[in-house]
Design a protein that fits this description.
563 residues, alpha/beta, Spore Coat Polysaccharide Biosynthesis Protein SpsA, Chain A, UDP N-Acetylglucosamine Acyltransferase, domain 1, 9-stranded mixed sheet, 5-stranded mixed sheet, 22% strand
Length: 563
């Protein structure tokens, strides 16, 4: 399964929507230096495959500045998709059509998992900021009483009804693509494309996926794009130096001696910058712009042919009179704040609330090396007896040998925690009936002489042998030998101020709380929080060695007490 072609489609929606809705994007694409910048950003950021990207532009946008640019195709009535655009079709491969009005930042691996698991022929994907990692969803009653809350440590995805609007990304199974083409392309109207899918008995699914979105038809979106991407594009850049220039690059650009330009600035041709003017990046200035003396421009986009008056302050604004686009009305400008949800780098789900250590510190490097060595040694030592334990469990109790439970690890990443099964199958369902006997406070559950334990399971648990398989989790990097107790999301969601501290490190097979807990009534949960936070705060080789020593002594004592 793979994506063989990504077609990024710029659509002129001004006829269907508000009259100014796509003029701003059209102005940017059809005028240099903006056109190269925007198209490069679309090509770099909007694609799902490293090669095989094409940008489709309305024929009426075909201006000389971009007409000969590679990777550009033009269309009139339908979105152009043909064999020369998608190349040879591989079985079970996908073609993705992206809406070029939007730049999205999304975990591509999650998209690929959706495609791999789906039996649909067409999948509409919309990127939704509220499903991103670090968002906390709160559920309340109609009286605003709290029902519960949940924090997403990883981007979420959820099914969503198919709508008549073009999604951010439309995935088409290559094998059915030929059945959807009209005059060599896809219908421009998404509702017509849906009708065509249904008439061909194709399965259409839709989902929302966590990520970030920039709307390039808005001033907010353009400003944020300039802020995030201007420094990574080849450009004319000025850094706090004097300029006395006229006709430097074969154009009529003139920059006064006393003008000052700071940071990343992209300049067009035929620009006139007056005395004592100041331009602070990230800023883009179009062709034939005149900037008066003493004017100040910061973090803005100045469209072609615009005149900035003497002494005027332009700050975080998009200024354009749309003179470069014939028969288009002017756009009123206003100060805007860029979308804080956009993340231009490779999609990053880090919340910034976790404790961090230097790369080669004990906590991040040496501890991991020691974990690997320790887990290898332990698994080798126990290799002769592990088959015996597995056979005994299988013969004495129906059900699987191993118990796999979903737990949250480093930075909230979910993993399957391994143990030898010590309880009857269905013990989790029996827990609710035993809840009245719970002797632990907080979200934990503990019952002395738990009736769900099997005879062999009781011995394995008392001697801690049931936790030997967790050394496999350690080898995989999901756990550490020493760390906070691995806990499920249901427990972590009840401790919002505590969870980020304990999830700053990998959970451990043993830990400070296990060695220091007193089991006093109504204090165990408090001690759990206290010792987990203390461990993260005081993490060191000395502390880990002390915990390991105390654990070894406790294991020997427990084992001897069984006989």
């Amino acid at each position: 399964m793979g994506i063989i072609r990504n077609l990024i489609v710029l659509r002129d929606t001004s006829k269907q929507q508000a009259k100014d809705s796509s003029d701003l994007l059209r102005l940017m694409v059809c005028n240099e230096p903006f056109g190269s910048f925007v198209l490069d950003c679309l090509n770099d950021t909007a694609g799902f495959c490293k090669t095989g990207r094409t940008i489709a532009i309305p024929q009426e946008w075909a201006v000389p500045d971009i007409k000969s640019r590679p990777g550009i195709v033009y269309y009139t009535e339908t979105v152009p998709i043909c064999s020369k655009h998608i190349g040879p079709v591989r079985e079970n491969s996908w073609v993705v059509v992206s809406d070029g009005r939007f730049l999205t930042s999304v975990d591509n691996q999650q998209i690929r998992e959706i495609l791999a698991d789906s039996q649909a022929d067409v999948i509409a994907i919309n990127i939704v900021a509220q499903l991103r990692a670090s968002y906390e969803k709160v559920l309340t009653t109609s009286q605003n009483e709290l029902v519960g809350f949940r924090l997403f440590y990883e981007d979420a995805a959820q099914p969503f009804p198919v709508t008549d609007d073009w999604p951010h990304h439309l995935f088409l199974r290559a094998g059915v693509l030929s059945r959807l083409l009209m005059e060599g392309g896809l219908p421009l109207a998404f509702d017509k494309l849906l009708d065509l899918c249904y008439s061909k008995s194709l399965a259409v699914h839709s989902a929302n996926v966590g990520g970030s979105v920039l709307d390039l038809t808005t001033e907010n979106g353009l400003l944020k794009l300039v802020q995030c991407r201007l420094g990574s594009i080849a450009m004319l850049s000025h850094h706090c130096v004097n300029h006395s220039r006229s006709n430097d690059n074969g154009d009529d650009t003139a920059i006064a001696d006393s003008a000052r330009l700071f940071g990343k600035i992209l300049l067009g041709k035929g620009i006139n910058i007056g005395e004592n003017a100041i331009i602070v990046g990230p800023t883009m200035v179009g062709n034939d712009v005149k900037i008066g003396r003493d004017a100040v421009i910061r973090a803005s986009v100045i469209g072609p042919g615009v005149s900035v008056q003497a002494g005027e302050l332009i700050e975080e604004r998009v200024l354009t009179n749309l003179q470069a686009v014939p028969n288009r009305p002017a756009i009123k400008t206003r100060r805007v704040n860029a979308d804080p949800m956009w993340n231009d780098a490779q999609h990053n789900t880090s919340r910034g609330n976790f404790r961090e250590w230097p790369k080669f510190s004990y906590a991040r490097f040496i501890k991991r090396v020691l974990d690997i060595l320790t887990s290898v040694i332990v698994l080798i030592l126990f290799a002769p007896v592990l088959p015996v334990i597995m056979l005994v469990i299988k013969l004495t109790s129906p059900g699987p040998v191993f118990f796999k439970d979903a737990r949250q690890g480093l930075h909230g990443k979910v993993f399957k925690c391994l143990k030898f099964r010590t309880m009857q199958v269905g013990a989790d369902r029996m827990q609710e009936r035993l809840r009245i006997l719970n002797q632990a406070d907080g979200p934990q559950f503990m019952v002395t002489d738990d009736p769900r334990l099997s005879a062999v399971g009781r011995f394995l648990r008392e001697t801690y042998i049931d936790e030997i398989p967790q050394f496999v989790n350690v080898l995989l990097g999901q756990m550490s030998v020493v760390g906070p107790r691995p806990s499920p999301e249901s427990e972590n969601r009840l401790c919002p101020f505590w969870r980020d501290a304990r999830l700053s490190v990998r959970p451990g097979i043993t830990g400070l709380w296990q060695m220091c807990r007193t089991r006093q009534p109504m204090k165990d949960f408090q001690e759990w929080i206290h010792y987990d936070i203390k461990y993260v705060r005081d993490l060191s080789l000395k502390l880990d060695l002390w915990i390991c020593w105390q654990t070894a002594k406790k294991m020997v004592a427990k084992f001897v007490s069984q006989f």
